[in-house]
From TrEMBL, chain A:
<dbReference type="GO" id="GO:0070476">
    <property type="term" value="P:rRNA (guanine-N7)-methylation"/>
</dbReference>
<dbReference type="InterPro" id="IPR039127">
    <property type="entry name" value="Trm112"/>
</dbReference>
<dbReference type="GO" id="GO:0046982">
    <property type="term" value="F:protein heterodimerization activity"/>
</dbReference>
<comment type="similarity">
    <text>Belongs to the TRM112 family.</text>
</comment>
<protein>
    <recommendedName>
        <fullName>Multifunctional methyltransferase subunit TRM112-like protein</fullName>
    </recommendedName>
</protein>
<dbReference type="Pfam" id="PF03966">
    <property type="entry name" value="Trm112p"/>
</dbReference>
<dbReference type="GO" id="GO:0048471">
    <property type="term" value="C:perinuclear region of cytoplasm"/>
</dbReference>
<dbReference type="GO" id="GO:0005654">
    <property type="term" value="C:nucleoplasm"/>
</dbReference>
<dbReference type="GO" id="GO:0030488">
    <property type="term" value="P:tRNA methylation"/>
</dbReference>
From TrEMBL, chain B:
<dbReference type="InterPro" id="IPR029063">
    <property type="entry name" value="SAM-dependent_MTases_sf"/>
</dbReference>
<feature type="domain" description="tRNA (guanine(10)-N(2))-methyltransferase TRMT11 N-terminal">
    <location>
        <begin position="9"/>
        <end position="180"/>
    </location>
</feature>
<dbReference type="GO" id="GO:0032259">
    <property type="term" value="P:methylation"/>
</dbReference>
<comment type="similarity">
    <text>Belongs to the class I-like SAM-binding methyltransferase superfamily. TRM11 methyltransferase family.</text>
</comment>
<dbReference type="GO" id="GO:0008033">
    <property type="term" value="P:tRNA processing"/>
</dbReference>
<keyword id="KW-0489">Methyltransferase</keyword>
<protein>
    <recommendedName>
        <fullName>tRNA (guanine(10)-N(2))-methyltransferase TRMT11</fullName>
        <ecNumber>2.1.1.214</ecNumber>
    </recommendedName>
</protein>
<dbReference type="GO" id="GO:0005737">
    <property type="term" value="C:cytoplasm"/>
</dbReference>
<feature type="domain" description="Ribosomal RNA large subunit methyltransferase K/L-like methyltransferase">
    <location>
        <begin position="190"/>
        <end position="320"/>
    </location>
</feature>
Length: 125, 460
């Protein structure tokens, strides 16, 4: 699971609403996966990022060199974009859990794939 | 209808496959590249010859880099219902437009294609020679000419009734071919990871084109299965997400879909499929998730949602439910620990899909999905609708004598306000589609009737 994905996921446990974001990340196995750098794609993603959640997740994984927010004119700032590319797309959580911050419910990640399934009682309809 | 002078006329030679899907594909692609569909031709129907006006050759070339419905495109220099009419038409074509491709330093070749008729070599040469009046000054080079010109003769569509003279003759400068070779190179037959309902490669590219997928888009498939639809989008430069309720399919485990193969191998999963085609960099993530209970936070992330939801025939329609609701004997996936098999009425599924698309698509983003239909009861009114989504196209593919599926394309043209606002509007239309909820029973009803008939006749 990439950190870009973690940044877009929320808990859909019943009654939790917006307090279900961000999911608390816990990782037991992480892999760095080189991905071809595409500055245009990374620049497109920057406005979608929730920075506090990203920084929290990056911190949990002990990542260094994570920009604290978008810089002025970031679309043309290659250094910034390369750092963001690495954080969002190259860090892959293979095993771990995502936890709903409100209900404590755990969603496991195995083989890099999060399992978001819930029983009917637990989830919003 | 008079056309603006700044537009050049082009002749598109279309493939005679997926007839209804062709016009929406071309229109979507033209709009993607800043063109607009303008034509003086009345009906497109079954003909493989389409004449369009396109503002620039660049747009025409971009169109051909994407289309799997069109074989080739030509800059149209002349046309007629007879050779004489063709020659008159060519003489009227502005010489200054011809000259750049005919001057003495260049090389060229003239080809002739006939449709629904075979000509002898002698007949072909005669027709090419008849064009001597054109100001060709360059040298003929049959192997590697700089410019290729084509005569195209249309002898109709009926192989049992071939006319002596063509209905239409066209002459044009060949610009480019389409992407039909993708159909073979991405064929499901050669793909590492397939499922029972993996989409035919040609249709998956058509879907990506109907969806106006472009480079650096994010495309999402909520019923991703083995990822076939994601492959087409990734090929066109989009980054892809997928979810599926089936744990085994997402992880690439369990029984194989290929004959002679028992279990899936280690290289069979969605990521590996993308890797097979050199598209792994476009893989974002896949998740095990119930499409009726999505986990995306509030916002608009997807440029396109392209999907083939289960119809309940070869894959079951399911969603998660509580322990009480699942009858005994239904399989539970041990790894996910969640009972998965509450039946998911088709009408509910499409209601959820449209609402989800309206909420998470960017403005201008497209939803492309298949809608299974029991043909005797089909009416246009039952196509699911949503106030934020505009219906762009509805193309039928017959599945059997009484069932078909329709490829529906919708575009988001209004901002999504809030979830509750739409639920009362949409519950009414579900009643219209409800007849198709029992699509599975109706799909098989034709089969049982036929068996009963055959049994009866064998007893008589």
């Amino acid at each position: 699971m990439k950190l870009l994905t973690h940044n877009l996921l929320t808990s859909h446990v019943r009654g939790v609403g917006p307090r279900g974001f961000p999911l608390r990340l816990q990782a037991t196995e992480v892999r760095i996966n080189p991905v071809e750098f595409n500055p245009d794609f990374v620049a497109r993603m920057i406005p979608k990022v929730e920075w506090a959640a990203l920084l929290e997740a990056a911190d949990t994984l002990h990542l260094t060199e994570v920009p604290k927010g978008p810089t002025e004119g970031y679309e043309r700032d290659e250094q910034f974009l390369r750092k963001m590319h690495h954080v969002l797309l190259e860090v892959d959580v293979l095993e771990g859990t995502l936890q709903c911050p409100e209900s404590g419910r755990l969603f496991p990640i195995s083989r890099g794939i999060p399992n978001m399934l819930l029983n009917d009682e637990d989830s919003e309809t | 209808m008079a056309l603006p002078c700044s537009l050049t006329r082009y002749l598109l030679l279309m493939a005679q496959e997926h007839l209804e899907f062709r016009l929406p594909e071309i229109k979507s692609l033209l709009s993607l590249f800043g063109g607009q569909f303008t034509s003086s031709q009345e009906a497109y129907g079954k003909s493989p010859f389409w004449i369009l006006s396109i503002p620039s050759e660049d747009i025409a070339r971009n169109l051909m880099k994407r289309t799997v419905c069109a074989k080739s495109i030509f800059e149209l220099w002349g046309q007629g219902k007879s050779p004489e009419e063709l020659y008159r038409s060519l003489k009227n074509y502005p010489v200054e437009k011809m000259v750049p491709y005919l001057h003495s330093d260049s090389t060229y070749k003239i080809k002739i294609h006939t449709f629904n008729k075979t000509l002898t070599q002698e007949e072909k040469v005669k027709r090419i020679d008849a064009l001597e009046f054109l100001p060709f000054e360059g040298k003929v080079n049959l192997k590697k000419p700089q410019h290729v010109f084509s005569i195209l003769e249309d002898y109709g569509l009926d192989p049992n009734c071939i006319p002596e003279h063509p209905h239409n003759i066209y002459f044009g400068r060949w610009i480019a071919d389409g992407q039909r070779e993708l159909i073979e190179s991405y064929s499901v037959k050669k793909r590492h990871f397939i499922g029972n309902t993996s989409m035919d490669a040609g249709l998956s590219f058509i879907m990506a084109n109907h969806g106006k997928v472009k480079e650096n888009d994010i495309v999402f498939d909520p019923f991703v299965g083995t990822g076939g639809l994601l492959i087409a989008s990734a090929h066109f430069g989009a980054y892809v997400y997928g979810t599926d309720i089936d744990y085994n399919t997402v992880h690439g485990l369990g029984k194989a879909s290929r004959k002679n193969q028992r279990w899936r191998g280690p290289d069979e999963n969605i990521r590996a499929n993308l890797r097979q085609y050199g598209l792994e960099k476009y893989y974002l993530d896949v998740l095990v998730s119930d499409a009726s209970k999505p986990s995306w936070r509030k916002g608009t992330y997807f440029d396109a949602i392209i999907t083939d939801p289960p119809y309940g025939v070869r894959e079951s329609t399911r969603r998660t439910g509580s322990q009480k609701e699942i009858p005994k004997g239904i399989e539970k996936c041990p790894e996910s620990h969640v009972p998965v098999s509450l039946s998911y009425h088709l009408s509910d599924m499409f209601f959820d899909l449209l609402n989800f698309a309206a909420e998470t698509l960017v403005l201008g983003g497209r939803l492309v999905y298949w809608l299974p239909v029991y043909t005797p009861e089909y009416t246009e009114e039952m196509i699911p609708w949503h106030p934020c989504l505009q219906l762009i196209s509805n193309c039928e593919q017959k599945l059997s004598s009484h069932t078909s599926r329709r490829l529906i394309t919708m575009e988001k043209m209004k901002k999504f306000e809030n979830r509750d606002q739409y639920s009362h509007l949409l519950s009414d239309q579900i009643l219209l589609y409800q007849g198709h909820n029992s699509f599975r029973e109706k799909y098989f009803s034709g089969v049982t009737k036929r068996f009963a008939k055959e049994e009866k006749s064998s007893q008589e």
